Amino acid sequence: MHDNSKGREYERLWKNCLEIIKDNINSQAFKTWFEPITALSWSDNKLVVNVPSQFFCEWIEEHYYPLLKKTVSKVFGEKATLQYKINLDQTDGNSESKAIKLPALKYPPAIKQDALPFSNETPPFITNLNPRYSFDNFVRGESNQLASSAALAVSKSPGNTSFNPLVIYGETGLGKTHLAQSIGNYIIQNNPRAKVLYTTSEQFTMDYVQALQNNKLNDFIQYYRKVDTLIVDDIHFLAGKEKTQDHFFHTFNALHQMGKQLVLTSDKAPKDLKDVDTRLISRFQWGLVADIQPPDLEMRMAILQKKSTDEGIEIPIEVVEYLAKNIKSSIRELEGSLIKMIAKVSFEDKEINLELAEEIVRGNGLTEEKPLTIEDIKDLVCKHYNISEEDMVSKCRKHEIALARQMAIYLAKKYTQHSLKSIGSYFGNRDHSTVLHSCQTIENYLVTDKSVKLSFETLKSKLKK
User: Fold this and answer.
1) For residues 450 and 452, what is the distance between their CA atoms, to the nearest angstrom?
2) Which residues on neighbouring strands pair with residue 42, listed in sequence order?
3) 13 — phi, psi (to 5°)?
4) CB atoms within 10 A of CB 36
5) What's the number of domains the chain is made of?
């Protein structure tokens, strides 16, 4: 049965999907990979979307599948499936084009989204590893020397070194996930029978909740404790989840006592994690804690050259140097700009030169200035309203404190690229609905309250200095 007759309701729903996606990734990625996608039809629980090329499909599938799947299921329903339509121009002079359709997810997950990974229907052991991540394509340098050396040592002898657990921490986009998954892939390559499981703290939490709902807690426990190597990404997202932390604590202990290898990543050192059980923090520091720092200029150039070689593209050295000098903080942002350049060459028939590099840097809003952070905003707002940071993140509902908190949240939403969930984590782990409510409250005040508007204008001018 076709649903396209309902005033193209599916187009409105797809726009809702895009709004959700936009709120969860940076603006550069959204403009490059999601703005060009349009909804074509909705029939029999299948959404067909148009994408520019198969290259687009593969990139989205590799980097954004979990977010895309979750969003489509939320907006269109749990049974919704996604299919890509790609228009291929003919080369024989025919002005028409032919279309090919690819089911969403070129490399489908072996574990169904709607089934517990530890249910009776589970296929042979699934690692969740991305085979593209390896030590061979990881660029080593001073900024990651300790972490990469330790990762290789762990890979060669998992569970038999003093690096257990191995905790790799650093800011977003510096290669923590790449390094962690390289460990898993190396282990499997050298011991195909090894049970290596890669997951995220959010997936661990979802599995735990789902186990409770389905009365399968014992299955959940056994699933996570039967592995030889457990790799958990983004452990900082365990913050505030007491029951999940408790189960992760016991899972950690069980695996460690059996001599199994644990590899963890975080955006900060264990000692700096907030709202995480001190028992867990203590155990995170049992082995080796290794940080990854932002790369220097030479390493950023090496990363660009390595990535361009892998993509089969030759880039002039002056272009490599220009991008490396202007994109400093994140390897992910660096590689994203390179991919955007390759996309423009592929889709718009442009030449790789300095002019194109300048266009991309300018279009991304990248400057050599330090980007505005939520901590900067909190500090400024606290000084403006004469309150402490402890008061701002507390549960206190006094008007002056609540107003300052709401103003800081509003400014964070307006002037940073953080998602609603991420913003909430900076303000006492408030959920996304609280963040939205705060933003709406300030927007109302800006219309009705002159003193709030004056404070906003004052803070805005200081933020822009």
Assistant:
1) 5
2) 47
3) -65, -40
4) 14
5) 4
Same domain for 238 and 340?
Answer: no
**Strand-pair partners of 51:** 86
Asked whether the CA dihedral 219, 220, 222, 223 is positive or negative, the reply is positive
Structural domain range at position 327: 297-363
Same domain, 72 and 95: yes
- The torsion angles phi and psi of 43, rounded to 5 degrees, stand at -150, 135
Tell me, what CATH number does 28's domain have?
3.30.300.180
Looking up tokens 């705060």 gives 438
21 and 95 housed in the same domain: yes
Q: What is the pLDDT of residues 201-251, one digit of tens each?
A: 988 999 999 888 888 899 999 999 999 999 999 999 898 888 999 999 999
Radius of gyration for the alpha carbons in the chain, expressed in angstroms and rounded:
24
- The residue out of 363, 390, 406 marking a domain boundary is 363
Considering the domain architecture, whether residues 157 and 286 belong to the same structural domain is answered as yes
Banded model confidence at residue 187, pLDDT cuts 50, 70, 90: very high
Distances in Å between the alpha carbon of 442 and those of 117, 386, 394, 435?
43, 18, 19, 11
- Which carries the bigger pLDDT value, residue 440 or residue 6? 440
| CA gap 451, 461 in Å, rounded | 16
Mean pLDDT over 82-108 rounds to: 49
Chain centroid, CA 254 distance in Å: 29
pLDDT at residue 110 tops 70: no
- Read off φ and ψ for residue 21, nearest 5 degrees: -65, -40
pLDDT surpasses 70 at 330: yes
Residues 302 and 429 in one domain: no
- The three-point CA angle 25-357-28 to 5° equals 10
Which of 103, 130, 290, 293 lies closest to 200 in space, CA to CA? 130
- pLDDT at position 97, please? 38
